[in-house]
Amino acid sequence: STPFTITLLSAPSHTGRSFIIKNKGASTVTVDATALGQIDGINTYILNQYQSVTVLSDGSTWNVLGSLSTFA
């Protein structure tokens, strides 16, 4: 029930890698890519309860492939 942050790995070091992140808790989850490659042009992505996001590294940034979420 406490908000927390998930920090993504460096996008340039993980080309082709993808992650599916889902918030199953009651508080918000912040997905952070600050200084490691942005997520579709932003530094953080907010997931509210039961929302999820799928991201893929293209070698320079993280790209959202699918989501049910809001931007921060």
Structural commentary:
This protein is mainly β. It contains no helices and seven strands. β5 and β6 form a beta hairpin. The mean pLDDT is 88.
Strand content: 35-45%
Order of helices and strands: EEEEEEE
- Main β-sheet description: 4 strands, mixed
* Structural class category: mainly beta
Number of helices: 0
Bulk shape? globular
| Strand element count | 7
Unreliable stretches covering 5 or more consecutive residues = none
Q: How far from one another are the termini? A: 19 Å
Could you give the order of strands across the largest sheet?
1-3-4-7
Mean pLDDT: 88
Radius of gyration: 11 Å
Helix content: under 10%
Topology summary:
Layout: E1 4-7, E2 18-22, E3 29-32, E4 44-47, E5 52-57, E6 62-67, E7 70-71
Parallel strand pairs: 1-3
Antiparallel strand pairs: 2-5, 3-4, 4-7, 5-6
